[in-house]
């Protein structure tokens, strides 16, 4: 690359980053927190009938109002509060004991009451209204002390907490990444270049998210996850390019591998588009361009910076201060040992990963609630106070709407079911409303069981519509279970085809899929052991073990971690394939490939692991779960799978690694990726 071309590329990159920074400056204000449940036509009909027949709106915000006594001043203040809230733009309805006389809205022992609000519009609009209500109405107001909780303020608080946690994560990861890069490259400028490329990727990510948010709802977690993913991948790709440049100057070959790797990660993440939850689909929409930007930036901007830096890259060499092995690359020596006794190395590793995966066998799944927030969160402490004074599920019950059903008896009889607190029935015309307050978390397995029991009850005449959080959870699980096979098929078929086109070997591609699944299942098992069962909580800081994992997290982890797994597979196989094509010696190719890439892969895994592990500093347990889970998946894959299982398997398989039936050989000869491409 000429100096003129390099300067042009850097200039265009600076202009692009400046534009992305301008576009994405206010990206946080255009994100939302929600999209965790699948839409249900039945629940929407039930809500409409409840609204039209009973004048009931499911509240998405609750105000907990405490007062010293039921005095006339309190009554006047409570009535005025309810009236002012009802008049606010964005508030569809406001119900309290003072304007309805409903005894359920007043604590049995007195001293507190509830104002149940229904905030209109989409989730973004509801969150904006919730912020206004919290700002204007919470705290001390005359004789009243007011606190807020519920879906809308909870989502708004999680959004703010996520923004703060992202800053903390980046500040935590940045110095560690710089230190690792300095240890790898041993000169300050060479260590700084991947960091610069990572920063370019982060700023570009914010611009991409801002544009995407104009056309579709984007989860706030997209900012946390895609920013860190883009930053980590950009540094990983830059590391590979820089190492190859220092080794033999073959940046072109490294660029081909990096772009191929970026495509594999993007395809893996694209499987999230299959799921009709915008929490997942918006992550895919944002992550795909971010991953590709990281790859393209690493093979365009980085080589241009290398040209412009020239000999300055080697200034300030710290090698004399740092230890260096005199026995050759440690990964090459390890590969040599594994080649001599592959079974003896592979069996303990496989058994260890299976042991780590064992807790996944008793995994339980639910959905997040206010317990993902810090213990001191106002939304969470208010929810605890309401549950203590009014009972769990009093204001968001499991509800059956009976249309033309003469006898609601079988439904009111659910009062005797374990997990049911109270059952209330009301009739207007030919419609019964049966409200079932649960004594168990609505998003738990017990809440799901009750929702499914309700769905199995079919009256002889009439129609039954069901709604409530437990119904939404059960429906979401059904939707995910229905779509997961398609996502698995997309990822596995696409990864197989890409790896086959890259290597020409069927067994190599199948092996990559199996080992990727093994390492990912092991990380799932660790997540169950820590976050579901509550063990080793000191590793990640304070959090509340709910007894289940969020049902969307394994889906998200699979698509992201499997893509990263294939990322390292491509790096390793690229060098093994080069050596095999040059020598035809499978064992020598494996040893040489691991010797040349082992340190790069382990360093890359450490770098992206640091980025992901920084999420553990979050105050929200779901981000802790994602951060630690992805970190373990990356670490296990890079060290145990790529470092031990891959060379052991390839030694046992021998030349069969590169076998393909005649038809597929012709496909590879015609469409496969060649060294000169």
Automatic annotation (TrEMBL):
Fetch the SUPFAM superfamilies from UniProt.
Multidrug efflux transporter AcrB transmembrane domain (SSF82866)
Cellular location of this protein? Answer: Cell membrane
User: Which protein family is named in the record?
Assistant: Belongs to the resistance-nodulation-cell division (RND) (TC 2.A.6) family. MmpL subfamily.
Record's protein name: Putative drug exporter of the RND superfamily
Pfam families tied to this protein: MMPL
Regions that span the bilayer = 166-185, 192-213, 219-243, 255-279, 285-310, 343-361, 486-508, 513-531, 551-574, 594-616, 622-645
Question: Do the record's keywords include Transmembrane helix?
Answer: yes
Q: How does it sit in the membrane?
A: Multi-pass membrane protein
Q: What InterPro entries does the record tag this protein with? A: MMPL_dom, Mycobact_MmpL
Checking Gene3D superfamilies in the record gives: Multidrug efflux transporter AcrB transmembrane domain
Cellular-component GO terms for this entry? plasma membrane
Residue intervals of the Membrane transport protein MMPL domain: 40-343, 459-661
What are the UniProt keywords, alphabetically? Cell membrane, Membrane, Transmembrane, Transmembrane helix
């Amino acid at each position: 690359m000429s100096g003129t071309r390099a300067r042009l590329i850097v200039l265009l990159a600076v202009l692009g980053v400046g534009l992305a920074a301008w576009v994405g400056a206010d990206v946080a204000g255009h994100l939302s927190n929600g999209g965790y449940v699948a839409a249900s036509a039945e629940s929407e009909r039930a809500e409409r009938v409840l609204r039209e027949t009973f004048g009931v709106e499911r509240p998405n915000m609750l105000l907990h109002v405490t007062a010293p006594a039921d005095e006339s001043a309190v009554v006047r203040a409570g009535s005025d509060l309810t009236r002012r809230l009802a008049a606010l733009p964005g508030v569809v309805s406001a119900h309290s004991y003072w304007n309805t006389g409903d005894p359920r809205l007043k604590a049995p022992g007195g001293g507190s009451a509830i104002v149940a609000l229904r905030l209109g519009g989409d989730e973004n609009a509801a969150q904006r209204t919730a912020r206004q209500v919290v700002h204007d109405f919470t705290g001390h107001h005359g004789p009243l002390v007011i606190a807020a909780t519920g879906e809308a303020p909870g989502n708004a608080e999680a959004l703010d907490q996520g923004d703060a946690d992202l800053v903390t994560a980046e500040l935590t990861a940045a110095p560690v990444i710089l230190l690792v890069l300095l240890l790898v490259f041993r000169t300050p400028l060479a260590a700084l270049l991947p960091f610069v490329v990572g920063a370019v990727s982060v700023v570009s990510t914010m611009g991409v998210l801002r544009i995407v948010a104009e056309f579709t709802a984007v989860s706030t977690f997209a900012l946390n996850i895609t920013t860190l993913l883009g930053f980590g991948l950009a540094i990983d790709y830059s590391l590979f390019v820089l190492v190859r440049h220092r080794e033999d100057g073959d940046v072109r070959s490294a660029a081909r591998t990096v772009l191929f790797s970026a495509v594999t990660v993007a395809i893996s993440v694209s499987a999230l588009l299959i799921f009709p939850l915008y929490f997942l689909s918006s992550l895919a929409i944002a992550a795909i361009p971010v991953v590709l930007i990281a790859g393209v930036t690493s093979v365009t901007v980085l080589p241009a910076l290398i040209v412009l830096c020239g000999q300055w890259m080697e200034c300030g060499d710290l090698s004399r201060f740092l230890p260096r092995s005199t026995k050759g690359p440690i990964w090459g020596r390890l590969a040599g040992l594994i080649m001599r006794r592959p079974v003896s190395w592979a069996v303990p590793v496989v058994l260890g990963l299976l042991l780590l995966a064992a807790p996944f066998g008793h995994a339980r799944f639910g959905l997040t609630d206010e317990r993902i927030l810090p213990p001191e969160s106002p939304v969470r402490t208010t929810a605890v106070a309401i549950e203590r004074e009014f009972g769990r599920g009093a204001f968001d019950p499991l509800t059956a709407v009976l249309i033309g059903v003469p006898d609601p008896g079988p439904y009111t009889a659910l009062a005797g079911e374990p997990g049911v607190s109270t059952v209330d029935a009301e009739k207007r015309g030919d419609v019964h409303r049966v409200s079932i307050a649960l004594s168990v978390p609505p998003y738990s397995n017990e809440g799901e069981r009750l929702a499914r029991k309700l769905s199995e009850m079919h009256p002889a005449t009439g129609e039954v519509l069901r709604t409530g959080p437990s119904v939404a959870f059960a429906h979401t699980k059904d939707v995910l279970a229905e779509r997961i096979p398609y996502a698995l098929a997309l990822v596995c078929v696409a990864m197989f085809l890409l790896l086959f086109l890259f290597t020409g070997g069927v067994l190599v591609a199948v092996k990559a899929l199996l080992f990727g699944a093994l390492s990912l299942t092991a990380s799932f098992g660790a997540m169950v052991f820590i976050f579901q069962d509550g063990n080793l909580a000191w590793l990640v800081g304070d959090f509340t073990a709910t007894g289940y994992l969020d049902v969307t997290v394994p889906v998200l982890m699979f698509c992201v971690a499997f893509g990263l797994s294939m990322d390292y597979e491509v790096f390793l196989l690229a060098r093994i394939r080069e050596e095999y094509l040059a020598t035809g010696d499978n064992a020598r190719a494996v040893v040489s490939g691991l010797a040349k890439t082992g340190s790069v892969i382990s360093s890359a895994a450490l770098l992206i692991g640091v980025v992901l592990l920084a999420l553990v500093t979050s105050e929200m347990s779901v981000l802790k779960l994602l951060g630690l889970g992805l970190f373990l998946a990356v670490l296990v894959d890079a060290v145990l799978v790529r470092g031990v299982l891959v060379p052991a398997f390839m030694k046992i398989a021998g030349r069969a690694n590169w076998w393909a039936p005649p038809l597929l050989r012709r496909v590879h000869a015609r469409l496969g990726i060649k060294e000169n491409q």
